[in-house]
Each structure stands twice: as structure tokens, then as C-alpha cells.
Inverse folding.
């Protein structure tokens, strides 16, 4: 049998830590334009904050924050945002993922529109990576049952 | 017998790969093909064309945006595959 982890230090520290991890994840995502970072890294940190909740408390606590159905929708939503940004430039007779044509939509010049186009696709990457990492973690750690963590072999 | 044959083949392939590294361009050579084809254009034009100060981001998301889209799709596919293989909903 596995001992139920009920340590007030771990619970308190992780409860305090989770909001800072999520803010840091958004920081890494937003500053991906000027410094190392971006959607992949930010999404991983965001998923790590949910995984920390699941490890320090239990799965129910983590799934209260982000439901399985919402998570599965997020998986597809990120790819949809990415590809949808690519298709948006078709409306203005551009090539696929030609962000310069987004200047017809956004109140900016074509060069700055490329900047915002990149921010949009990084948002898609962030959402997909976050949802997929958390979904893979849940499936692996509970053998697909989503009830409780796998127990240690004795 | 099989193992000895496998070892010989492995050693031969490894030796061939090591031998072929001799014809690589020198480390940090500014005239190697990777440095003279598209890299200078990306480094010089990134700020003017995309207003992004980080050349890595502009190559990842703009010049090679198609590649990154399918990287994201691969991650999505991996998540769906794990879900299909493992998820039991009673």
C-alpha cells in the first residue's frame, strides 16, 4: 500500500507556488519575442503547475482546476488557433501563414502585423503543449482510469 | 555467430561514420555551407522584416512557421494517441 501523503508543509508550499509558476509561464510566453522562451517552454511550465497540484494534493484537486473535457478541448484548440491564423491570410489573398496580410485586420502596418501573428501562433502552441502535457501525465500516472495515482508495488 | 556478425557490421558502420567526419567543414568556419546560405539573411533582415528582436523566434514562428505548425500537430497527435491507448472510462 502507498501511504497517503498528507504533509502540511508540502501542501502549503505548493499552494503558494502554483500561482507564481503560472505567472512565470505567461512571462516566458510573452517574452519569447525578445528573450529565450516561447510557447513550448511556457506551456510546459503551465502544465508543471497543474502536475504539482496533482502530486502534492490528489487528482481530484487538480481536475477541479481543469476538467478533463476542458483539457481535451484545449488540446485541439491550440492547433486550431495556429492553423486558423494561417488560414486568415487567405482572406486577403496571401500565402498560408503570411502574417503580413493580417495588417488588414489589425490596426498596424504589415511589418508589425508579423509580430502579432507570431504572438498568436505562440499562444496556440502554448495552449496545446499545456493541455497535452497534463493529459499525458494523467493517463500515464493513473493507467488511464483517472481515479487515483498508481500504487507502489510492495 | 549472429552476434559477431552484428558487431562487425556495427563497427564497420561506426568506422565509416567517423571516417566521413574528416570531410566536414571546420568547427566555426564562417565559409561553411550552413553559414553562407540563408543564415546571414535571417540575421540581417529579422528586425527589419518582422520587428522581432530575437532571431530564434522569427525563424521558428515566421520563416519556418509551417514546420512549427506540424511540430504542434505532432504534440497534439501524441496526446490523442496516449489518450486512445490508455484511457479507460469504465
Amino acid at each position: 500500500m502507498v501511504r497517503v501523503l498528507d504533509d502540511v508543509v508540502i501542501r502549503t508550499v505548493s499552494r503558494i507556488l502554483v500561482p507564481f509558476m503560472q505567472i512565470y509561464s505567461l512571462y516566458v510566453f510573452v517574452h519569447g519575442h525578445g528573450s529565450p522562451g516561447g510557447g513550448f517552454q511556457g506551456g510546459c511550465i503551465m502544465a508543471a503547475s497543474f502536475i504539482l497540484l496533482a502530486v502534492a494534493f490528489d487528482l481530484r484537486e487538480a481536475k477541479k482546476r481543469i476538467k478533463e473535457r476542458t483539457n481535451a478541448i484545449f488540446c485541439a484548440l491550440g492547433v486550431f488557433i495556429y492553423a486558423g491564423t494561417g488560414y486568415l491570410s487567405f482572406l486577403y489573398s496571401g500565402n498560408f501563414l503570411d502574417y503580413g496580410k493580417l495588417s488588414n485586420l489589425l490596426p498596424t502596418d504589415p511589418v508589425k502585423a508579423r509580430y502579432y501573428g507570431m504572438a498568436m501562433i505562440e499562444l496556440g502552441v502554448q495552449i496545446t503543449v499545456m493541455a497535452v502535457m497534463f493529459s499525458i501525465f494523467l493517463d500515464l500516472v493513473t493507467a488511464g482510469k483517472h481515479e487515483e495515482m498508481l500504487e507502489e508495488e510492495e | 555467430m549472429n552476434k559477431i556478425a552484428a558487431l562487425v557490421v556495427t563497427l564497420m558502420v561506426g568506422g565509416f561514420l567517423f571516417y566521413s567526419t574528416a570531410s566536414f567543414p571546420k568547427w566555426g568556419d564562417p565559409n561553411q555551407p550552413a553559414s553562407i546560405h540563408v543564415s546571414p539573411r535571417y540575421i540581417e533582415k529579422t528586425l527589419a522584416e518582422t520587428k522581432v528582436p530575437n532571431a530564434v523566434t522569427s525563424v521558428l514562428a515566421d520563416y519556418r512557421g509551417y514546420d512549427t505548425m506540424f511540430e504542434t500537430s505532432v504534440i497534439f497527435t501524441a496526446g490523442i494517441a496516449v489518450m486512445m491507448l490508455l484511457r479507460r472510462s469504465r
User: Anything to note?
Assistant: Chain A has one domain: 8-141. The CA atoms of residues 27 and 42 of chain A lie 8 Å apart. Helices of chain A lie at 8-30, 39-56, 59-65, 68-88, 110-141. The interface with chain B takes residues 32-36, 38, 72, 75-76, 78-79, 82-83, 86, 96-97, 99, 111-112, 114-115, 117-118, 121-122, 124-125, 128-129, 131-132, 135-136, 139-140, 143-146 of chain A (CB under 8 Å).
